[in-house]
Structures are given as C-alpha cells and as structure tokens.
Amino acid sequence: METARELFSYRKFWAARLLPAPVLPMSRAEMEALGWDSCDVVLVTGDAYVDHPSFGMALVGRLLEAQGFRVGIIAQPDWQSAEPFRALGRPNLFFGITAGNMDSMVNRYTADRKIRSDDAYSPNGEGNTRPDRAAIVYSQRCREAYKDVPVVLGGIEASLRRIAHFDYWSETVRRSVLVDAKADLLVFGNGDRAVVEIAHRLAAGQAIETLTDIRGTAFLRDGLPEGWSELDSTHVDTPGEVPAHRNPYEHGASAATSAQPSPVRPRGDRERTVIRLPSFEQVREDPVLYAHASRVLHLETNPGNARALVQRHGARDVWLNPPPIPLATKEYDRVYELPYTRKPHPHYGDARIPAYEMIRFSVAIMRGCFGGCTFCSITEHEGRIIQSRSEGSIIREIEAVRDLTPGFTGMISDVGGPTANMWRLGCKDRQIESACRRLSCVFPDICKNLNTNQMPLVDLYRRARAVPGIKRVFVASGLRYDLAVHTPEYVKELVTHHVGGYLKIAPEHTESGPLSLMMKPGIGVYDRFKLMFEKFSQEAGKEQYLIPYFIAAHPGTTDEDMLQLALWLKKNDFRLDQVQSFLPSPMALATAMYHTGKNPLRRVHRDGGDVSVPRGLKVRRLHKAFLRYHDPHNWPLLREALKRMGRSDLIGNGKRHLVPSWQPQGTGQRHTQAAAKPRAADARRRGKPRPG
Questions:
Q1: Non-local CB neighbours of 386 within 8 Å, separated by 6+ positions
Q2: Domain termination residue (choose one: 480, 498, 516)
Q3: What is the DSSP string of 198-260?
Q4: 130 lies in which domain range?
Q5: Same domain assignment for residues 578 and 674
C-alpha cells in the first residue's frame, strides 16, 4: 500500500505560539480573550460543540490546532440568513462544513419519514436545530457571508453523498452534494490526512483549485488531465452473466466469490487511470446503470488498489480521488490524546446534550469495519481496514475519563468503536490486503487470511479493569459474534466481566434470503454464540440475557421471511420492544437494491438478478408488525396477512398459534401510534427470554 506523510510531520503554522486554546472559540469575545485577531479556519457544524474526540468537529478542530492553526467553531447556526456565519469574521484559509455526526436527513426523519421530535446532538435534545440537507445550506450561507473564502465539505453527510445517490426522503436520485453545495472540495472518509494537507497547502499560498491530488477528496473539473487514461466502468465490471472466479490469492487473480469482479489490468497502469462511471443523468434515468455504478464504487474502496473515479454532472465532472491511507497507530494515538476538555463548550451552561451523555464515560479504541453489511454506512465512511489505538493510549484515556469527566462514578460505559471486537484484527499479509477486492472479510465465510485472534483484546480488558478508580468496564458497542466464537476465551472474558446484564447483538434476520443480501452470517452462528454466552454466564453465576436486533423490510425480504422470523421469535420466547425498519441511507449497497430492484453484490444485468423490495408504508408496517407479533395493536394486521398467505392455522388461542383470534378492547386501531406495554413482571419486556 502507498505510504502517506506522517500526520504530525508538517512544520507548524506560525500561530502555534498562541495555542492551544482552553476551548475552541465560538464568539469574537472568546477570540479576543485568546489574543486572536482572526481565525485561520472556521468550522461550521450542525451539532452542538462538545470538545470530545467522539464529535467530529472537535477532533478536526483540535487536530488543526495541533498543526498551528487558529480554529473557531460555529455550531448550529441560524441558517435563515448569512449573518450568523460572519460571527467569527472572515477565516484566513477556509470554511470547513459538516452536517454533524449524522446525516441531517437521518437525524431528523424516521424510517417511515416522520419528523423526529428531538435531536440527540442539540442542547436539551431540542429538535429543528439544523436544516434538511445541512451541508448544502451551510455551504451556501458561507458563500453569501464571504464569497471569496474556500469552502470544504466533510463529515458523514458529505461522505455518503459524494456521487449521484438515491435519496430516500425525496425518492429521487440526487446529484453529488458537491455540485448542489457549490463547494470547492469535498473530504470523504476519515478526513484527518486530507484536512491537514489542505490547511498547510492553502497556508503556503496554493489556490484551492490546484489541490487536486489529495487522497480522500472530491472536486469538480473539466476534462481529463494530461498523462491520465480513462477506463469506462463497464470494462471493469461489464453488466452480463456472472462468470466463474478464481481464487484471489493464486497468480494475482482479483476475486474469490461471485460478489467480486473479474481480473483487471495490472497495478502498474492503475495509478494514473480514472474509471468513468455512468453520468448523473444516466443513473437518474436507468436503475440498472445506477446499480452498476454503486457496485463499481464499492469495488474501488481499498486504499491499496482503488483508482480515481469520475462521474459527469451536466457539463462538468465530479472527480473522486482514491480513499485516504489509514492512520498508523502512533498517529491515531496522538489524534485522540490532543487537549480535549471532554466536555460541552461552556456556552451551553447546564444544558444536557443527550449524545454527549451517552459517550462521556466511553472510550473509542478503533475505527473501520471489515464486515461490509450492505445496509450499514460504517464501511462506506470509515473503510474496511481497521485502525487501532495502542493499549497504552487507551489506558491513558480511561484515566482521563476518570480524572476529567464530571459525574464519573468508576464505570466505563463502553470500550469499543464501530464494532466491539475488531481491535487489532486485520489481514495477515499486507501485500494480500493491498490487492484484495472483497466486499467483506467475513462473508460468505471468514477469509482464511484474516487474523481472528481476540486474545490481545482480552489483555486490554484486564488491564483496563486494573486501572485505579475503575470499578467496572462495560462493552456496549456492536459485537461481531461470528468473530467472537473463534476465540472462546474472549467470549468467556466478555461474559464474565464486561456485560451489564444484557448484551446487544444483531443477527438481523433468520432466513437465508435476506441474510445473503445483508452479507450477514446464518442464524446457526447466533445459536453457537448463544450457547457460549449461556454457558459462561452460568459458570460466572450471573443471570444475563442476549438482546437480538432484527431489521424489517430489508431488500430481499418477503412476507414469508418475516413470518418465519416471527415464528422463531415466538419459539425462542422473545418479545422485542425496540425494532427497526430498513432505512435506505445514501450510497449503501442495500439502498441500491431498494432503488433498483437489482443485486449489486453480483454483476448487474438487465435480465435476471432481481431483488424483491418491500416498498410502501403498508408492507413496511406489516414487516415491522411481524417483529412485534405479541403487540395487540398489530394483531388485526397480522390476521389479515396470515389469511392472505394461507396460514390461518396460525390464528388461535393455543401455544402453537402466532396471534390470537380475540382482540382486547381498545386495541388494534388501524393507524394507532400507541404501543401495548407488557406486564412489569414479564422478564421478556426488553427483548430477553424468561429465566429458565
């Protein structure tokens, strides 16, 4: 894999003599108190400003500050005019804009497109504190405020909308957010390297339009640069029949499963080759080309072999450079050990910020996910290569939580990240890793080249528990149980010391059809993990429960699939309180399935390869009702569906029936939003089985 310049090797900008600031300023008065006459960079965010590395703008701000730049924050500005965007004056280098830690549409609307009443990233959870499509709105307001200041987009909203994408909330294919925002640059993925390089090169006098060679960035350009060759995406992955594929680790072949492309040209001519995707206008009109473009994009995400991509939007091209090189452990450690206060900005006073309350006693130990679940945005944003912090850095942060966080009682709420148990896991061979084009390291089976040893994580847990003043260390991040079962000692350590009575895991479904399109393991792996969990819980003398999460209405899911899942839940005595419907987030492979009815895990072709899509409120409500088969409000809907499916035998008052034939008074209204509350004595009310 190409090497990258060390993140902290740049000569610091002159303003380093004035830094660091106790907290990044949010007003002119704070700037003056620091002795600043201006900011070099002004960051605009849709979230409240919490000076903690789990909040993207705090991390980027402190990282730029460590490079010697004066950074100010404009958090949740009133977007009705440009005036709030002038609050800190004209930035010397650029505006950095993000919608926040979440896509603004996902943040504001449910999977049923209902407006949420609150916002976890706002003071006191107040809703309506950011506009829809915030990255676009903020960018336009910054242009109005200071039209000659470069605008750089970043964060997950920009990252997942960097090319033409299906937008669930408008049911249309929208242009790259770069085009609509009229920004100069878009930073996608983990932006540490890109943002630092942009700042230093602008400070050195380079014009923003000349910054076209930075990994992890997208920009608009006219024509093909000199010395570059163009490859049509249909030559990389021609729509048609699925051919047989060779082993990827023999003689340089590039794919192992039907989810992978045929061999492409050697690495030598790749570095100055750009792949042309079908244009915005083409993918907007042709679902097959949309699915094809989505597939090619995901196949070009390995930093070791990804090529630049280009997509025409009207008269100009949106150019995407290859993804950023992952941070080395030493770099990652330094980013997380910058002088964060680990608290909300004093401006908020005693206001409670729910997202901060959730993470203030937690410690992030890694980035990325090699699971590749098609419905998830983690891989698209953070990549498949795991970036891990050192054990020493993690322990130092636990000590910082203990010493600096108000209200700490000795409980670390989570030691994890996007996944709980991928810390220090990865490919056994860097050369193989750089050549690999698999979409997942664990599907359909765990790759033989993947290191699955989680004993280093066991050692980390033990050391964390031994820190003076620490009473308990919990693991609350999502657990890949298909990895965990390969290290029984890890499962025993987790269950014995780090589960607070309940452990949340996500089998997502029981049926092979939807599971294969999710790229998730079969339910048999869950059963294997469950046996381990119960065995080790019993040995530890603890009454603990697994809480499984499932998705309703995922592409490829039929009514029969949901019925079988409901029967499995009933057989295993589960009554779920919290259930989720599939939400088509921008750029996800499952979203391409939802929009096109095609399967981009294989070669996309016009005849065949179709995916059934649960579409429309009625069918989505039905699929969700199957997950809550025990709720009387859902019984009329389920009875109607069971009769239609020829399964009236499941309606009755016996144990073998799914729903009763009787209806409690006051329940079952067709459009009710109320939910039946289970009996307080029912141990299953939180999705766990009754003891014994």
A1: 366, 367, 368, 369, 370, 422, 423, 424, 425, 426
A2: 498
A3: HHHHHHTT--GGG----TTEEEEESSPPTT-EEEEHHHHS-SS-------TTSTT---SSTTS
A4: 1-216
A5: yes
CATH of the domain at 24: 3.40.50.2300
- Residues 556 and 453 reside in one and the same domain: no
d(CA 141, CA 148): 13
> What is the 3-state composition of the chain as percent helix, strand, coil, each rounded to the nearest 5?
35, 15, 50
Q: Are residues 540 and 441 in the same domain?
A: no
Average pLDDT estimate for 456-475 = 98
* Structure confidence by residue, pLDDT tens digits, 271-306: 889 999 999 999 999 999 999 999 999 999 999 999
Q: In the chain, what is the greatest distance between 2 CA atoms, to the nearest angstrom?
A: 78
| Within a domain: 466 | yes
Least confident of 160-169, 313-322, 674-683: 674-683
**From residue 539, how far is each of 375, 457, 558 by CA, in Å?**
36, 21, 40
Specify the pTM: 0.91
Q: What is the spatial distance between Cα 34 and Cα 26, in angstroms, rounded to a whole number?
A: 12
Q: Does residue 466 register a pLDDT over 70? A: yes
Asked whether residue 392 falls in the same domain as residue 466, the answer is: yes
User: Which pLDDT tens digit goes with each residue over 162-187?
Assistant: 999 999 999 999 999 999 999 999 99
Q: For 500-515, what is the mean pLDDT?
A: 95
- Are 63 and 206 part of one and the same domain? yes
Residue-wise pLDDT for 37-48, tens only, equals 999 999 999 999
> Do 688 and 633 belong to one domain?
yes
Q: How many angstroms separate the Cα of 449 from the Cα of each of 284, 438, 446, 611? A: 39, 12, 8, 31
- What is the per-residue pLDDT for 239? 57
538 and 470 belong to one structural domain: no
Helical pair 488-497 and 455-465, crossing angle rounded to 10 deg:
20
Q: Are residues 638 and 544 in the same domain?
A: yes
- Residue 294, domain member (yes or no): no
Could you give the number of structural domains in the chain? 3
Length of the chain in terms of residues written: 692
Instruction: Grade residue 5 by pLDDT with cuts at 50, 70 and 90.
Output: very high
Rounded Cα gap, residues 562 and 581, in angstroms: 12
- For residue 231, name the pLDDT band (cuts at 50, 70, 90): very high
> How far apart, in whole angstroms, are the C-alpha atoms of residue 603 and residue 595?
17
